[in-house]
Amino acid sequence: MAIHRFVLLVSLSLVLFGLETAVSQRQQQSQVPCLYIFGDSLVDNGNNNRLLSLARANYRPYGIDFPQGATGRFTNGRTYVDALAQILGFRTYIPPYSRIRGQALLRGANFASGAAGIRDETGDNLGAHTSMNQQVNSYTSAVQQMLQYFRGDTNELQRYLSRCIFYSGMGSNDYLNNYFMPDFYSTSTDFNDKTYAESLIKNYTQQLTRLYQFGARKVIVTAVGQIGCIPYELARYNNRNNSTGRCNDKINNAIVLFNSQLKKLVDRFNNGQLQGAKFVYLDTYKSTSDLAANGAAYGFEVVDKGCCGVGRNNGQITCLPLQQPCSDRTKYLFWDAFHPTETANILLAKSNFNSRAYAYPINIQELANL
User: Fold this and answer.
1) Which of these is catalytic: 40, 82, 193, 336?
2) pLDDT digits (tens, 9 = 90+) for 208-219
3) Do 174 and 200 meet the contact criterion of CB atoms below 8 Å apart?
4) How many C-beta neighbours within 10 Å does residue 212 have?
5) Using the 8-state DSSP alphabet, how is residue 357 labeled?
6) Which one of 42, 63, 74, 366 is at 20 to 30 Å from 113 when CA atoms are compared?
């Protein structure tokens, strides 16, 4: 048993060392000139800090393992896009849009906002946030600012942006903080699972097309993960049904419909609907599912509870200010009721980068090299 545990720890150490080695090898120059990020709390790194919102993470113990402490990241350390930026060779993390303007925008910006969704009203139950439509608007404003550094030459700016990577991870809150919250939203009566997914894809198509119209050519879109299996849903579902360890299949089945349509949208975009663009679909649903199912192989001892939280599965109430989290975050898949730990984020980023196991039709490294 001791030998088996040692092997697992060595394997995890090699994965983490591999990230640092990959970063050090590329520090002279990043593989792409800039990275623009759109999304929700899975990748938000501080845009919500000054908003009147419950969707904020600029307090301890969030950031307990991050060098700058509690920055507004909804995890203990690095987010998925932090790890991705490192693998791509960026010397520093992509900053939140709320903190940058001017020439710094040429290197990229993170527009993501906790509680945000494809639909504008999504997340209103948590207070202020920046929806996907608003994030796209902020990006178009940023493009206008960047134009001055190309002497007003839109063609030159377009050529520059065409080499950048655009990451968009949206849809989780449209289910978690909208469709499956009937006391606050009417969408579950206005739609069924199929028509709701279709409505989201219609809106998302317009948003992604607008990014394309303002320069996006290399675009990553992520599937929605297994929300029915996060600690928050496990706590609610198993409490209602007097059971333990069961995922909420009703939620997961609805998400599968959205994900399948998102993958088809990627095909349409790549097959000529958006001329000259290359979209990559990341199957976050499968990658997170596989990570949970094979957690022991990566050193995870707990895959159904948050490292920090209150109540059943540490998921009934998310991580509170100054709460004492678990002592070894590398053993937990989830940091709180909703979000992965830094270790999980790094593993997911590495698995998507140079493998097609969860990336379609090409991986992120291939996208960067186009």
Assistant:
1) 336
2) 999 999 999 999
3) yes
4) 19
5) S
6) 366
Q: What is the pLDDT of residues 297-326, one digit of tens each?
A: 999 999 999 999 999 999 998 999 999 999
Count the Cβ atoms, other than its own, within 10 Å of residue 357.
12
pLDDT tens readout for residues 166-220: 999 999 999 999 999 999 999 999 999 999 999 999 999 999 999 999 999 999 9
Give the confidence band of 245 by pLDDT, cuts at 50, 70, 90: low
Tell me the C-alpha distance between 200 and 188, whole Å.
13
Catalytic pick among 30, 113, 168, 339: 339
Which helix (H) or strand (E) segment holds residue 49: the answer is: none
Instruction: Please choose, from the candidates 165, 192, 146, the residue with its C-alpha nearest in 3D space to the C-alpha of residue 34.
Output: 165
Clarify whether 4 is annotated catalytic: no
What span, in angstroms and rounded, lies between the C-alpha atoms of 86 and 26? 9
- How far, in Å, CA of 95 to CA of 257, rounded? 33
Pair of tokens at residue 329 = 């975050």
Catalytic status, residue 336: yes
DSSP state of 102: G
Q: Which two tokens stand for residue 158?
A: 């377009």
By three-state DSSP, how is residue 270 classified? helix
- Choose the catalytic residue: 30, 41, 98, 168: 41
Q: What is the DSSP letter of 177?
A: I
